[in-house]
Hints:
Number of helices: 23
CATH class of the largest domain: Alpha Beta
Number of strands: 20
CATH topology of the largest domain: Rossmann fold
Amino acid sequence: MQTPNAAHDTTSTPEDPGKLMTGAEMLLECLHREGVDIFFGYPGGVTLPFYDAVYDSHIKHILVRHEENAAFAAAGYARATGKTGVCCATSGPGATNLVTGLVDALMDSIPLVAITGQVHSKLIGSDAFQEADTFGITRPATKHNFMVRNVAELPRIVHEAFYIASSGRPGPVLVDIPKDVFQARGHYKPVDSIHLPGYKVFTEGHAGQIRRAAQLIWEAERPMVYAGGGILAGHASEELKELVELVDAPTVCTLMGLGGLSSSHRNFISMPGMHGSYASNMGMTECDLLIALGTRFDDRVTGQLGAFARHARVIHVDIDPAEVGKNRTPDIPIVGDVKRVLQKLNKVVKEFEPEMRATNANARGAWWDKIRGWMEQHPYDRRHDDSVIRPQHLMDEIDRLSGGQAIVTSDVGQHQMWAAQLIRFNEPRLWVNSGGLGSMGFGVPSAIGAQFARPDKLVIAICGDGGFQMSLPELSTIATHSLPIKIVVMNNGCLGMVRQWQTLFYNNRLSSVALECFPDVEKLAGAYGFTGRTVDKPHELAEALETAFRTPGPYLLNVTVAPMENVYPMVPAGGAVYEMVLGPPQPVAVE
């Protein structure tokens, strides 16, 4: 969490009321004090006073081509760094276009501060030009939101916004600022502390519960660690690794938690849930202790809730008390910051180790044998084909070339699931995707934010042909800044995941899923001044990806894949996670 920096030389005294500034200048001073070095936005009428001040600012502004993408880019920046992302939009349609990005950040617990302009205070409620009730519209779309009523309260509100966004369970906070507040002049006074009496953040965890959890961990015969996005949000990857190695527990990382434990770690099994591995889902089904860390028992992980981990006692650690017991009542609930709780838990686990290490050692060995057996019997389908590029082949090649070290962003759909299954993430914050909301069009703009955040990293945006066409305007942003993002379109000519469900559950009645017109990517990329290419032959795939990844600057690679391939395993909606469909129906032999 970032707290206001009081080290600046503008500290005021009763005799010195502070430096005289406009509201726009105050906002930029607050952003500077919060350590903001870049933000993403799109100007408009009521934010002109602010953008006039930005002209003289050292904070970098990135002009996106749509406000939704400003929020997605800010989220990409936040997801890749752990810092608070910042976006800005004008009133009315500018603000409403941010809403999808705000809900995306809310669902995935991403720290974001959105600045929106509002019509002049005297015009609010009069249906003025480009007026919208941004405050009311975004209340359910944010962790908290503010409307600034006068310039004197602007610094306090902005610093509170950053504190709320980054503390506790992170999330988006919106600050709505009328045009006259941007223009008004006042004496800027630094904010040295935050006072929010109604806002409680639980960080330490109950010491007694932590000791009980440590004992339960050693007593378990079939323990399983279930790590979620809270591990990344809480910067707790090292503590997770320490726990996993201390007790030698099989570990699954959710879609949002991938990279929390290195994909190459010997204890990492896979992702669990609807498209998780057989070993992950069976492990969670048959474990006798589930150690849930920074996760919310999402329906895409649990499937039929009553059948989920039904033999297990549950330890649930989460910083948000609303999540503990919401979907599954834990045997040991621990509300606190997952990093601090794990530091304490690991210490107690070590204390118990000399007397408890031998407890259930044979049973734990048998448990690992069972897990490894499941992994060997039912691995992910990685078959390649000589006649057509299978999506799994594409992901395998990306994995080979990235080596578990690249930042990979994703749109939503089949390609997202194949990427999560088959690409390694050996560090935290390499996997950037829209998990809870599932926003199409997320891949390219989030890659923009991630590339600005990590210019040292190879950034790959994996898109479907549907999601890619939702974010086409941002090719202009990429070209403007010569961002070396590698866009890989997995092109199956349809809305793949929708088509899969229609095939499996709607009698193959394919309704409104065909994407029959796709641009010539060589001409499309060329129009923006960089290289585009289409590849459709399996033997050309490796070379095409190698060329794309080593070419300086941006690159657009369109990969034509098998159109009717489905993602497996798959847990049907409403099914238990052990009721996985492992592959397409096999024809029955007729004698």
